[in-house]
């Protein structure tokens, strides 16, 4: 609990607003244009020497497949998830417990909502207890996003 409070405080002090830290997700928001925040997120990931291995175009997929299942309500204006790995953090995590493999790759999502212009959300899975380095990595990436 204490580590979460420190992370939340750090996020607040860097200009981000924690929106929700329940339901297994840590969500923050920042005011700005989606494309600017997206570029800043990519820079924050790559600035740590990490390589984005996959980008999921979530909003596009939901829009495309929604027609097939009879759903017409848009969930996101824009939404993507960036997946990446840290050889150092991942190795330590799996040396401690091989089943921690399920936490890889790491990912940070970015999205904007219909009717909420100028606000962009960043989210990641709350790391399990005992994975403080993962929490530090993901929280640090989000805190570094400055459009």
Task: Please provide a written account of the structure.
This protein is of the alpha+beta class. Residues 1-17 have low confidence and may be disordered. A six-stranded antiparallel β-sheet has the order 1-2-6-5-4-3. α1 runs parallel beside α5 (132-143). The protein has helices at residues 2-13, 34-46, 58-69, 87-96, 132-143, and strands at 17-20, 25-31, 51-56, 78-85, 106-112, 119-125. It has one domain: TATA-Binding Protein (2-Layer Sandwich), CATH 3.30.310.70. Helix content is 40%, strand content 27%.
Q: What's the short version?
A:
By secondary structure, the protein is an alpha+beta fold. It has five helices and six strands.
